């Protein structure tokens, strides 16, 4: 009997992460997103999720304190109140977490409106123990995260409190005939005396700052997509794009040019066209992930 050809079904919509992984290794893309073959988790994902969740909830509290009169800050009064109540509930039950010392001499919480201990309490509540190699590594990263959050808090208190417009804002963006899904960590309204309102888009990173602090076009793609979405989906003027490297406490700022935005549109279309060709060969240039070791024979 003749074997039936097994054809994988391509997704109707794509994310930046999917396109990036295909760009780095088509085989890894196939295994992860088409065949959905599981791999053991990695501690860096646990750490990154902890930091993102903590900051998202902390900035909700900051925004509530600073802009309680803006009922639609998070997309509507009911949704806003519900999200704030959830975060406040987490803090109210934080008495079971380890005691956290307030930074000596730090009275900047009066300006921010939320004390540093509340940030640490959220961190304890959001901490994920999964996938660390051992107890030593887990303790090392837990302290690393606390240090990063303390620095984040200090930087926040030393500057104008962000006028947050949206947190974890999802979007669907049409590029050619394709749809790109995404989620922006934070969107702030830029301070300005002008009538025209502009925004800055912030993306938190728990990885390393690029060498020499310079971003390649490939490094910029994620925020360039966010810029295009802000302009075309939300009709916003984007003044600044920011990668916030939490572990180093450093920010890299830029704004996409028309040329860069066009190049990222072309990259999106070209990458999806390659995916549609069903050529999912292993990238020979690098050892990208564990799929080669575990599942190469199934490619």
Mind explaining what this structure looks like?
- The protein is globular, with a radius of gyration of 21 Å.
- A hairpin with an 8-residue loop joins strand 3 (about 180-190) and strand 4 (about 200-205).
- It has two domains: about 45-160, no CATH class; about 165-275, Lambda Exonuclease, Chain A (Alpha-Beta Complex).
- The chain is of the alpha/beta class and about 300 residues long.
- It contains ten helices and six strands.
- Strands 1, 2, 3, 4, 5 and 6 form a six-stranded mixed β-sheet that branches.
- Residues about 75-80 and about 95-110 have low confidence and may be disordered.
Give the SSE layout.
Blueprint: E1 13-15, H1 16-24, H2 26-34, H3 43-66, H4 77-92, H5 109-112, H6 116-126, H7 135-158, E2 163-175, E3 178-189, E4 198-205, H8 217-232, E5 237-245, E6 250-254, H9 258-276, H10 291-295
Parallel strand pairs: 1-3, 4-5
Antiparallel strand pairs: 2-3, 3-4, 5-6
Helix pairs in contact: 1-2, 3-4, 3-6, 6-7, 8-9
Give short descriptive properties of this protein.
299 residues; alpha/beta; Lambda Exonuclease, Chain A; 2 domains; 10 helices; 6 strands; 46% helix
Provide the succession of SSEs: EHHHHHHHEEEHEEHH
Q: How many domains is the backbone divided into?
A: 2
Tell me, briefly, the overall form.
globular
Structural class: alpha/beta
Q: What share of residues are in beta strands? A: 15-25%
> Unreliable stretches, pLDDT < 50, 5 or more residues?
76-81, 95-110
Q: Quaternary status of these chains?
A: single chain
